[in-house]
Amino acid sequence: MKNLLKLTGSLIVAIVLNSCTVSKEAGSIKKKINGNWMLETITTEGINGKVTASIFNEASFTCFVGSSWNFMSGNSLGNYNINANGSLCNALNRTIRWSIYEPKGGEKQFQFKRLDEKKNPMDNGDGFRLEISQLTNTTMQLKSHILFEGNPAGYVYNFVKK
Is 98 exposed, middle or buried (0-12, 13-18, 19+ CB in 10 A)? Predict the structure, then answer.
């Protein structure tokens, strides 16, 4: 009976540990993303005209252009910094928790949650998922899919590694 309990306990621990680990591919993606990046440009797909939307429940689309992002794969924390730009953009340093989302049968996605000063999730615990369109050692392109006037559209975020 004692051996059966030990075996059952070992199996439960193994299952829990296995379910918490990320795949080798996701681990490789995290290692590539690890480090300091600049959000060089944001473009749109399926949207005509000038965009004035707020993104990530944070700031105007234009405020994020030129923002610096830091991703630490070891603890899955990071941050982004927006520089002040007159009355258009307030300076901001936001801590985030990030990871790679692995949907069954789907492409890996970059996901993050904004955190408050105490590192608690904001936005009712909801976060943001972005398609990883391109990832090299020096460039990263992420896409967020939205609806614009009832049609599929998106924002394309182009990062360069510092």
Answer: buried
Domains in the chain, CATH or no CATH each: 23-161 (2.40.128.280)
25-59 b/e with 16+ CB inside 10 Å = b?
A: eeeebbebbeeebbbeebebeebeeebeeebbebb
Could you give the CA distance from residue 63 to residue 42 in angstroms, rounded to a whole number? 10
The answer to whether the beta carbons of residues 123 and 114 sit under 8 Å apart is yes
Please state whether the predicted TM-score (pTM) of the whole model is above 0.85: no
Burial of 2 (0-12, 13-18, 19+ CB in 10 A): exposed
Model confidence pLDDT, tens digit, residues 102-129: 998 889 999 999 999 999 999 999 999 9
Cβ–Cβ < 8 Å for 121, 127: yes
Interatomic CA distance for residues 54 and 60, integer angstroms: 4
113 C-beta neighbours (distance < 10 Å), count: 17
Helices vs. strands in the chain: H and E counts, helices first: 3, 10
The helix/strand/coil state of 50 is coil
